[in-house]
User: Fold these one by one.
Assistant:
Number 1:
Amino acid sequence: MHCLPSERTFLPLPLQHATPIPSVPRGSSVAARAKERQRLRAVDRTRLLDSGDEERFDRLTRLAQQSFGVLSAVISLIGDDRQFLKSFVGPLPRNVAREFSVCDTTLQAEGGLVVPDLGSDARFRDNPFVVGPPFVRFYAGLPLRGPGGWFVGSMCILDTEPRILGLEDRTLLQCLAQEAELELNRGT
């Protein structure tokens, strides 16, 4: 599969559990707080947080959901205390507390995050979306860069059954994430 040219360089997604780069706990240092403020300014510069539905994003989430045969596909933005689903297919709320967002962890993993079984991963097994509706078990996502190169959100796919993401599927997800990233930066 060939993707459209992009300035983004992807690192390979692991086929098994991804171990994200450890994040500095929010508020733990002056430097960490300053970086988070810059990242949040980049989110604001997209002018997409709390914006309405847009076909340019919705076509990508529909394509992802259909291509992978998953319950949900999402393009999200991570704000200060919540995740906003800019576009999504599936039974998910538009806003999710950041502490329950698997996509927030994806922002710390430059090469993406693949969790074949959220219920078996200590980081996520008690997440309300894993133990309660919609009972998500599989997650694969890539961080999306916004203005200034800051990670502002992610593109991900989720399903109710554990699964492995093969090389061909990883490539397709990367292509879709590249398109989402281009759209996020259009007009900024």
Number 2:
Amino acid sequence: MKIEDIMEMWGEDSHIDDKDLDNESLKIPNLHQKYLDIYSKEKRKLSDLKTQWKVLFQQRWEVVISKNGRPPEHNIRISKSELEKHYVAADESLQKAEKILNEQEGKVDYLKSVLSMLENRSFHINNAINWRKFVAGLG
């Protein structure tokens, strides 16, 4: 699922009808379940992508430190951090994989934020009800 699709869904679902607060309150569990399902799937996908990235990193690391995929014939000593920072990280296939991984992390973070808003939604509805009571002189 694309982040844009999730954002569009949340754009529709985040609206609270201030004239129907009781039904809005009843929708919270269904919305929470909907976004929790999406979050779980996307979190699992993120975990899979991280695993794939580690495998790809190892493969590309071996290619970068060797010549044409063969063990290096030299004894040049380069620190692991320097090698990863300057050579392996510059590998095109790793950059593509990292871009996909970063996009997936962004999607998971967005969904965490949506779930947090849903967890607080009942407080927002309660505040709206209390404000109406106060304005009406009942609270």
Number 3:
Amino acid sequence: MQRAAIRLVLAWLVTAVVAGAAQAEGRLERGHANYVLHCSGCHLPDGSGKPAAGIPDMRATVPQLLATAAGRAFLIQVPGTSGSSLTNAEVAELMNWMLPALTGRQDIAPFTTEEVTRYRNDRLDDVAAHRAAILGTSR
């Protein structure tokens, strides 16, 4: 009887792990799809942006922004994110795909729906000036 119970518990654990991995993969796929639909028009599929038009190379800029709490909030507050039709959960999924994909870093704390909700309503009047202030650069 004990062996049957142990097997049942092990089977349940394996199923839970596999299901959790599939859910995480689904969130990453949705994050990528939403990046393509909502961000890549300006930031381009590879994140290189259009610096001459004032759209920074996210591959270089995002790691600097992630170094501060204000920079992390900025990523949610930019008009393309804060004003998008995405839900807060979808924005978190997008960020959690985009940040490692464009920076190559896997050590980035994931965005949560609660964090997106907290920052999203604080809209920016002057995106370039706000970004420059966070990065310590001129516009």
Number 4:
Amino acid sequence: MTRYIILLTGEHPTIPIAEIRAILQGRRIGLFEIYDQVVRLDTSQDLCKEIAERCAYVRACYREVFMCKAELDTILKYLRRVDFTPFIHNRSFAVRVLRIREYSKDLSTVQLEKKIGAFLKERFKAKVDLKSPNVLLQGILTSDIFLLGILMITSRRRDIIRRGSKYKPFTHPSALDPRIARAMVNMARIYERGVLLDPFSGTGTVVVESAVIGIESIGIDIDRRMIYGSLKNVVEFKAYDKCSLILADATKLPLRENSINAIVTDPPYGRSASTYGYEPSKLIENLLYSSVRVLKKGGIIVLMHPKEYFRQVRRTPLRVLEKHVIEVHSGLTRVISILKYQELSKEGNQTVSETSLF
């Protein structure tokens, strides 16, 4: 096992961690350290690569060289202890230092880059190449600590963004952001040979993000135009090998009992997307009861919904594992609820983890 540093985007305080936690749970890895926009864990290079490639809110993964207090003398002391020969011998390098938010403002990132670079050049006779180095050494100032790592892999976040609305052949004002869709798919905890269902598939964002990472995906929508339109998106993004689309009512799912491992969905609420005569809160409640029939025991539902509809969620035989609150804009709040299908205890439904933006 090697220690790695995972750098997060910082776009949301809880969703990036939830993505990583869900992937690690599938590998039975539960211990990791969390700092502001940084996760530190002991794992394999393959798993580190998987996290970087799958997660929507990860920027890059680094092999850790050292961690210390964010003090110049301490940083230089730790630097002198490391033999960098295996990393930069006969190879060019560059040093970058990133400050997270306002941490350690007494330290200049530019001066740190120069001091670390000068030390490595003099001690190990390494060649500096600021434009296209063989090795990138990344320093990170966060939570009053300094971490130094060697870049292993950058995320595929740009690929996810390029599947956004302006790149789709078919779109709609209610279409989900592909970054949120990918994070929701990751939080569904499907690891191998699982089947994911989106019963309100709309433009197909969830099923596309699921299918492109190798998960068998089923999209259902009651609107024929959405089915035809989402098929265009599935073809455009080459997700057809793992994706099926069905014209049907989400409250009367035409699927076998216990056939689905996870459900990931963003139901319509009657603003930019029609509820086809259903009252929105009743639509969510009916969906959840319909979902319980097709979901395997222990299966996960990742549901985005208005904050005021959380009561409907708690009326069902689903355990609330997590809540993540997203402030869309002033006056509009959405909640991502992570639910697990199991028989209720006598005490009823219990929320075991609640995380919020505000």
